[in-house]
Amino acid sequence: MRPQNIIAKKRDGKNLNGEEINAFVSGVTDGKWADYQTSALLMAMFVGGLNADEQNALTEAMLNSGEILDFSDIEQPKADKHSTGGVGDKTSLIIAPLVAACGVAVPMISGRGLGHTGGTLDKLESIAGYNVNLSTAEFKEIVKKCGFALAGQTADIAPADKKLYALRDATATVESIPLIVASIMSKKLAENLDALVLDVKTGSGAFMREFDDAKNLAAALCRTGNAFGVKTEAVISDMNQPLGKFVGNALEVFECVKILRNETDAQMLRTLELSIELAARMLVLCGIAETIEDSKSKIQKVLESGAALEKFRQNIECQNGDAKICDAPEILLDKNSVEVVVKAAKSGFVNAIDTLAIGAGVSKIGGGRIKVEDAIDYAVGYQCEKNIGDEVIAGETLGVIFCRNNAQAELIGEKMRDAYKLGDEKPAEKFELIMSAVGQKHSE
Amino acid sequence: MRPQNIIAKKRDGKNLNGEEINAFVSGVTDGKWADYQTSALLMAMFVGGLNADEQNALTEAMLNSGEILDFSDIEQPKADKHSTGGVGDKTSLIIAPLVAACGVAVPMISGRGLGHTGGTLDKLESIAGYNVNLSTAEFKEIVKKCGFALAGQTADIAPADKKLYALRDATATVESIPLIVASIMSKKLAENLDALVLDVKTGSGAFMREFDDAKNLAAALCRTGNAFGVKTEAVISDMNQPLGKFVGNALEVFECVKILRNETDAQMLRTLELSIELAARMLVLCGIAETIEDSKSKIQKVLESGAALEKFRQNIECQNGDAKICDAPEILLDKNSVEVVVKAAKSGFVNAIDTLAIGAGVSKIGGGRIKVEDAIDYAVGYQCEKNIGDEVIAGETLGVIFCRNNAQAELIGEKMRDAYKLGDEKPAEKFELIMSAVGQKHSE
């Protein structure tokens, strides 16, 4: 099967069959397809779309391009959560210990940050010694031992996705629902899960800015997960403002430890609320709880008892990190960092926050990556003090930049301030944290 | 300007401005765009199309990626002919000497064969010693000296086109009118012509099988040529059967020399007829003749007087070829070739000919290239004995395969025979050689 023929078929708006999609994915994996042929087909797929059969075939071929984890020797149900990415989105570090403490195994393969979004692996690496580069054997061993493990995608998991994602990023073919679904699900299905909960973000700091796009993506993800025998649900959550109190790697881990220590303050509440919402669904899907309410009370118990914190401590030890942060989270904060206040230029109500600008600002001073190869400064970040709907007085603190020097603060200070759109009236829209949910019952 | 932004714009159905198209073409030329980015944009252009402004901007950028020939020291008007390619299409070798003998300079940059279509350069190289690899200086010198030169595209002429064409061929983005137009015209405009006549083929052996597609391509080519100040006309000619008597490199040169020697036989007539039609339009566009009739009588004169043959001889000498073929064209025929007759399996009228199959058959035994790097056997080919509308009796000769051994004849014999669709009735359609013409007056 010549690549040209397969490309031409999709180019002309026809549907590809399973054999053709397999030929494509194995050609990508073994290098028989040149990158320029792959990107031509990706563009044809982007423009022409994929139907459900094609999307499933693509997901399956990408999944089968690599290893599928074997957890047959783990008795507990296995579940994971995946987020489409946002600013200050740190729920993985709370959900994994919560759910593990309730008896669910969580084999969580995560990613790194790029652009304005953070990545769980980067956050974890702000814990001294924490190792996210686990072999498959180590990964499984840690899941078995402490209930969850957090690691990067090895070369063995969906290698086709690694190649395709790099090409999509360079060729403006990222924002395609079927391609996103195949990319996410090929990795998640390799975890051999019983249940999967997706956190699809929408709003000014999300990949899917429009609610309808997020809903379509959520539905496609659920449809695909369930088609492959994984009980899958999605929550559409608000990313019109950073999630919780902190943005920035060490600062976000600090927030998580505070929450796991039951030291949640008002500004951290949304982080906890979303974590519980997602975790509760995981437990129900795994059959650990009957209802969401039942599930939430179980979660509340392991949080209050300190069992979740203990799980986190155990995991940090298993992954060679400095577990003392569980007792003294302030260890995470760099004493040499400079804190610069961002002040409101006028009085008014916060009507909107350009969340992408906040994420991009933190990236710009080293908290994230502009390019894949950029190094990260774990200490820098931003503390959110005001949310949408809050009233502020001219000169009042909107937030605090954690940086290395005043030059960095000057570089981004104005942009951070301008990210807050102030109006004379309280905004009509409330931006509920949980905007919608797509259950497996609703999926086709 | 990031490639991704330009790709995304076209992907989303928007029009690119001149600056964006220039950034693309210079990125392709200097290697700043990766091949996979280029092919993604080519696919987006293929699917989304280009409007007239974009097409002109692309043509201009590709033209300006290389050298534009300077013929300011040549007094005669300069004209060229370009064909979209077919089977047995050998008119360049007749037109160039005819037109040159009438006082027009013909700086003809030609191509090589690929797939079922032949290439002028390959045909010329079947003349012992003939050199098509000329420097720009040599090329110009030969045009000046004998009125025409035939050479390959140097690295200096439209280098962006070379890269783009290779990528299009590998990524199923060839058959796009705006991309074809930019490719053809960027090279032809580099010849700094006064006039250009295009031979757009249509039918079973043509790139554009459908008449309407051919007509659209012809119109787009004329529009572009005239927009750049070159008087451009197109003829749409029939490629539902091979043109003239022979298919195959040396055999086609043999046919041309026979025609230039006024030894045209019945089966060669269509070759001569099309050559005169195209040449006549070149003379009118150059102002050498007032009307097509006037032009045709001038051409008839230089043909009958032997002046055109002398021009060809002079050119062969200039390009280091063996000019004795002008006196003894049979030198071109390989005495060691085996001639195997293809016979009709039943009686009937030739209703259709699968011209592509004939061209592909000749390629298969070495007369053309399956892959770009294939070597050519100049001696092999095919002699056409029957045309559409002819009556044949079972066992009668349809054509003759010129090959190296019987194994080759067996390899393609059946396919050559099956290329002739025989019916009980004479076909209704006549397939006129000249199907339509698109004049510069008709173009927008």
Task: Give a brief description.
Two copies of one chain form a homodimer. With 444 residues, chain A is an alpha/beta fold. Helices cover 45% and strands 15% of the residues of chain A.
Task: Based on the model shown, name its key terms.
4-stranded antiparallel sheet; 13 strands; 16 helices; 3 domains; alpha/beta; homodimer; Transferase, Pyrimidine Nucleoside Phosphorylase, Chain A, domain 3; Aldehyde Oxidoreductase, domain 3; 4-stranded mixed sheet; 45% helix; 444 residues; 15% strand; Pyrimidine Nucleoside Phosphorylase, Chain A, domain 2; globular
- Please list the strands of the largest sheet of chain A in the order they lie side by side: 1-4-5-13
**CATH topology-level name of the largest domain in chain A:** Pyrimidine Nucleoside Phosphorylase, Chain A, domain 2
User: Helical residue percent of chain A?
Assistant: 40-55%
Largest interface: A-B, 25 and 26 residues
So what's the oligomer here?
A: homodimer
The number of helical segments of chain A is 16
* DSSP, total strands of chain A: 13
- Whole-number count of domains of chain A: 3
Reported for the largest beta sheet of chain A, the result is: 4 strands, mixed
Our measurement of the CA-to-CA distance between the termini of chain A, rounded to an integer number of angstroms, reads 33 Å
Order of helices and strands of chain A: HHHHEHEHHEHHEHEEHHHHEEHEEEHEE
Shape of chain A: globular
Structural class by secondary-structure content of chain A: alpha/beta
Poorly predicted regions of chain A are: none
Q: What's the CATH superfamily of the largest domain in chain A, by name?
A: Nucleoside phosphorylase/phosphoribosyltransferase catalytic domain
Radius of gyration of chain A: 22 Å
Residues in β-strands, percent of chain A: 15-25%
**What is the CATH architecture assignment of the largest domain in chain A?**
3-Layer(aba) Sandwich
Overall pLDDT confidence of chain A: 94
